[in-house]
């Protein structure tokens, strides 16, 4: 782990990502509290806000990976921060005048711009780290995610109750400025930021964009192990969509209607603790167990525990289940995060990683849309948890059916290649 922090580029990218994500979580959660507070009788507003974070993926998904592989990855990540900072200023104005349609449009645009950040950053990290450091970086990122979960909602509630929604959005915007400055300060080899050589935006037509995007799909389809791994991301998207709003709904309309903000903060604390504990466990497991075994077992247990949430009839039982779910999911995320860079060629990383968000966000948008339409008049919280748990169980079955044989096939091919050399 110490070797990671000797790498100055990694440290700056890591802090930039941390700052940007923390500010975003604070701003988004404060906005959710604002909507639930001002429009308590209209919970679909909070769901619509979550959809504004998810839907833009479907608008730009065919561009982000092509840009990350065709153009300067460092400038893409940096400019993404600058544009989001500017949009945050407009969001402050929209909130001050309580103009919700404009606020939702700005959230949509800001989310669309953010989609260019992750493929570029992921591709840069692949280039500045050695193969042996992928698992370490994935474990560290998972620990940071646990910290976000631990403090993010609480900080959002604190920001909303102290500096208000306007102050929370300003904090969000400043986080993008800090992130952009850190990314600009990195000194990265041209082969990493421009793996396919320089390109001209004017020469990149629609046909070339879709051809490049299709090449990413063909690359994934040509690697069955990678294809199977990414198939599960579609099912994970439904889970993300459900958990984006259901914990708050569960607290407000079932377990803690009189103090749902505090209970929602406790939800984040418990799942954050679970992710932190699970991150430590995952760092050990990836050294002694095969990654596909960690993924299969972790997804299976998560599905069973999600169904168990149905029977949590008081706050502390619900929070305990959530903490265990976080502990189980963290090793899964570490295994997947450390595995993907091993399976993808550096010059294809942008186009491959660009498929992850569309798969997840399409499912997430469908889930949020269905919840907005069907809850609470047509489906109950209990039925929704049944559906989410069932999808996780389905993902574990798919992985159990496919991954072991594909891993054996990959290991055999690598052994043959070694002998041939």
UniProtKB/TrEMBL annotation:
A family per Pfam:
MFS_1
Respond yes or no to whether keyword Repeat is given for this record.
no
User: Where are the membrane-spanning stretches?
Assistant: 12-36, 48-68, 88-109, 140-159, 225-246, 266-286, 293-312, 318-340, 352-377, 383-401
- Keyword Transmembrane helix listed: yes
What is the protein's major site of localization?
membrane
Keyword entries, A-Z: Cell membrane, Membrane, Transmembrane, Transmembrane helix, Transport
- Membrane topology type, per the record? Multi-pass membrane protein
* Residue runs in coiled coils: none
Q: Where is the Major facilitator superfamily (MFS) profile domain?
A: 9-407
State the compartments where it is located: Cell membrane
Q: What is this protein called?
A: MFS family permease
């Amino acid at each position: 782990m110490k070797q990671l922090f000797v790498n100055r580029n990694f440290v700056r990218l890591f802090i930039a990502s941390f700052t940007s994500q923390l500010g975003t979580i604070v701003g988004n959660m404060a906005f959710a509290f604002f909507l639930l507070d001002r429009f308590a009788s209209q919970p679909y507003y909070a769901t619509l806000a979550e959809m504004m974070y998810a839907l833009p993926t479907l608008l730009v998904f065919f561009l982000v990976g092509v840009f990350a592989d065709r153009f300067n990855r460092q400038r893409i990540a940096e400019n993404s921060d600058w544009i989001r900072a500017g949009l945050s200023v407009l969001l402050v104005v929209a909130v001050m005048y309580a103009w919700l349609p404009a606020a939702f449009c700005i959230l949509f645009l800001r989310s669309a711009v953010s989609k260019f950040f992750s493929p570029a950053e992921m591709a840069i990290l692949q280039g500045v780290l050695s193969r042996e450091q992928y698992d370490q970086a994935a474990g560290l990122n998972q620990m940071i995610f646990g910290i976000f979960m631990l403090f993010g909602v609480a900080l959002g509630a604190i920001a909303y109750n102290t500096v208000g929604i306007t102050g929370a959005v300003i904090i969000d915007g400043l986080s993008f400025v800090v992130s952009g400055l850190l990314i600009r300060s990195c000194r990265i080899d041209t082969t990493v930021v421009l793996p396919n050589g320089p390109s001209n935006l004017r020469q990149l037509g629609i046909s070339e964009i879709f051809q490049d995007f299709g090449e990413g799909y063909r690359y994934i389809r040509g690697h069955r192990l990678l294809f199977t791994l990414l198939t599960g991301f579609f099912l994970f998207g439904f889970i993300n969509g459900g958990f984006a709003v259901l914990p708050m709904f569960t607290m407000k309309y079932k377990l803690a209607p009189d103090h749902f903000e505090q209970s929602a903060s406790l939800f984040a604390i418990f799942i954050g603790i679970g992710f932190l504990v699970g991150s430590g466990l995952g760092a050990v497991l990836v050294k002694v167990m095969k990654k596909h075994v960690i993924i299969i077992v972790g997804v299976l247990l998560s599905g069973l525990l999600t169904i168990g949430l149905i029977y949590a009839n008081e706050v502390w039982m619900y929070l305990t289940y959530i903490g265990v779910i976080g502990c189980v999911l963290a090793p899964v995320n570490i295994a997947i995060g450390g595995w993907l860079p091993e399976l993808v060629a550096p010059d294809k990383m942008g186009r491959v990683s660009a498929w992850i968000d569309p798969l997840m966000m399409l499912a997430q948008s469908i889930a949020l849309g269905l919840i907005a339409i069907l809850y609470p008049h047509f489906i109950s919280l209990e039925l929704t948890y049944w559906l989410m748990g069932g999808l996780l169980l389905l993902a574990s079955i798919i992985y159990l059916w496919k991954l072991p044989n594909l891993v054996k096939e990959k290991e055999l091919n690598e052994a043959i290649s070694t002998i041939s050399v």
